[in-house]
Specification:
Layout (H helix, E strand, L loop, with lengths): L1 H18 L5 H8 L8 H20 L22 H17 L3 H6 L7 H35 L1
């Protein structure tokens, strides 16, 4: 049941991305180009997604447990806004602005073929792996500094 729900959700999400043209990097770049050929239509897509999420979150959060995903809701343990989060958000935004793809539309664009999306996926994968390594190094270094300060 979990796999079927994940499959149907992914299909619905992909269809929504394709129908709203969020898988077209030119459309996305025009949305981000406020000083040039600005196209505000994707703001309605994002606003619609936020509205649905706002309503669904309020309804779902009243439940004691998820319908399919297990016995408890999994919420992020970390809620503070820190330097790594801000740096990551900035890098994500820069990458999105340059390439015109964020992860959802990027993977949905595979269906169109072409080599550009594969190059973006490769760069995304390398960036993700490099970030994991850098964050691991950062956490190790931070723990050593904290140990030195307390010990």
């Amino acid at each position: 049941m979990k796999l079927l729900t994940a499959l149907l959700t992914g299909i619905l999400f992909g269809l929504g991305l394709a129908f709203s043209q969020m898988i077209d990097p030119t459309k996305v770049i025009n949305f981000l180009d406020l000083a040039g050929t600005w196209d505000p239509s994707l703001a309605f897509v994002m606003g619609g997604g936020l509205l649905v999420n706002l309503i669904a979150y309020r309804l779902i959060s009243k439940r004691k447990a998820p319908l399919i995903a297990g016995e408890i809701f999994h919420k992020p343990a970390k809620t503070d806004i820190d330097k790594p989060l801000l740096i990551g958000a900035a890098l994500f935004g820069i990458g999105w602005g340059i390439a015109g793809y964020c992860p959802g539309p990027m993977f949905a664009s595979i269906s169109f073929g072409g080599t550009d999306v594969w190059l973006i996926i490769a760069a995304y994968s390398i960036g993700t792996l490099a970030t994991k390594l850098a964050m691991s190094h950062y956490q190790t270094r931070k723990a050593k500094v904290e140990d030195a300060c307390t010990g």
